[in-house]
Design brief:
Peroxisomal Thiolase, Chain A, domain 1, alpha+beta, 6-stranded mixed β-sheet, about 400 residues, 10 strands
């Protein structure tokens, strides 16, 4: 047989082998896509394996926070003199220009100007330019990892995400927004922006997962938690830090919320009570360490609680920019239930009250908030909200810590 005849005979066999390999590859691809589709439909629960906090009322760790809730301790106080002089800005008249009608709020009992810069490898000059929120975030992030029994140095180059809710930048008034350009140095921008607050945590720990600061007003910390869970479920991250931080360092925002008439004149959150007349501003930092449940079980991590589902949406058009939409908020609860694969059984109807300016909007919706027994302990949630609002930027700053504290060994 000639060489040409041999080549002609081998061509069909070669094509057949190529087709066979292509079919095998296509079959593997289809199988992977089916597995990915199934995983998206049946999302992996997310385990909370560590947490840390610094909240008003002496709640400087999760155990102290739970003691505060159990004791029904009122963590709302008068503004400390080292923040601003209360009498200079107070006026009972709601319309008084440049004044606030309450000087009460939830303030930390630990100094916000203290920081171990050497521990984090930060120079004294850079530390002075850093917003205390940045410093607090580093401390609580580190403590959360320790609470999870993780050695921070072992996370270098890992796919660990960082998601933080924050909205205020009072400290920028000391340099970037001081009106005195001579106060601005090389650290003014890196010490005051939200992106660098979160980025510095990833930088110091050497984390290479997603890193973002989120500002969605009162829901900032909960949205951070939601996005961290999504990142883990999609495989984008293998570990995540999620939480929020807020400090009240100057009077301007307190005045803003007074003019909006959003805060309670007596500085009290009266959740679910007919006498509710606004919320109390507060400060603090909370952080949870998250991991896919199967990975946490595999690695022998202590599992404090599970996040089985979450959802986010927006109120859309209402009767005012700051007014809520009861129907939209009911919808997001239903979406979260569906995401968790749960059914809204054994619900109880709860009536939420609000400042008078929002009452008309709420009364037009169906029974306002519907809660169910499988999503936590209502008394614990109510207690935390009434004693103080964990963060003006993240109404959910402390919430992930509450139920885990119940079952934490």
């Amino acid at each position: 047989m000639s060489d040409q005849e041999k080549m002609a005979q081998g061509e069909p066999q070669g094509r057949e082998e190529a087709f066979r390999q292509a079919l095998q590859k296509a079959s593997m691809t289809i199988r992977q896509l089916l597995e990915e589709n199934a995983s998206l439909k049946n999302k992996e629960p997310i385990a909370i394996i560590g947490m840390a906090c610094r909240f008003p009322g002496g709640a400087n760790n999760p155990e102290q926070f739970w003691q505060l809730l159990q004791g029904g301790i009122d963590a709302v106080t008068e503004v400390p003199s080292n923040r601003w002089t209360a009498e200079d800005y107070y006026a009972a008249d709601l319309q008084a220009p440049g004044k606030m009608y309450t000087t009460r709020g939830g303030f930390l009992d630990t100094p916000v100007d203290g920081f171990d810069a050497d521990f984090f490898g930060i120079s004294p000059k850079e530390a002075r330019a850093m917003d205390p929120q940045h410093r607090l975030l580093l401390e609580i992030g580190w403590e959360a990892l320790e609470h999870a029994c993780l050695v921070p140095s072992t996370l270098k180059n890992s796919r660990t995400g960082v998601y933080v809710g924050m909205s205020s930048d009072d400290y920028a008034r000391s340099h970037r927004h001081s009106g005195q350009p001579e106060n601005i140095d090389a650290y003014a921008i890196t010490g005051s922006t939200f992106s660098t607050a979160v980025g510095r945590l990833s930088y110091i720990l050497g984390l290479q997962g997603p890193c973002m600061a989120l500002d969605t007003a009162c829901s900032s910390s909960l949205v951070a938690l939601h996005l961290a869970c999504r990142s883990l479920q999609s495989g984008e991250s293998d570990l995540a830090l999620a939480g929020g931080v807020n400090l009240m360092l100057s009077p301007e925002l307190h005045i803003c919320f007074s003019k909006l008439q959003a805060i309670s004149p007596d500085g009290k959150c009266k959740t679910f009570d007919a006498s509710a007349n606004g919320y109390a501003r507060g400060e603090g930092c909370g952080m949870v360490v998250l991991k896919r449940l199967k990975d946490a079980v595999r690695d022998g991590n202590r599992i404090l609680a599970l996040v089985k589902g979450s959802a986010i949406n927006q109120d859309g058009k209402t009767n005012g920019l700051a007014a809520p939409n009861g129907n939209a908020q009911q919808a997001v609860i239903r979406e979260a239930l569906a995401d968790a694969g749960s059914s809204p059984q054994q619900w109880i109807t709860l009536k939420r009250t609000a400042p008078a300016r929002f009452s008309a909007t709420l009364s037009k919706s169906k029974p306002w908030v519907q809660c169910w027994d499988r999503v936590g302990r209502p008394l614990a949630a109510r207690g935390g909200k009434n004693q103080y609002r964990p963060s003006g930027t993240g109404g959910g700053n402390g919430r992930p810590d509450k139920n885990p504290a119940v079952i934490s060994p």
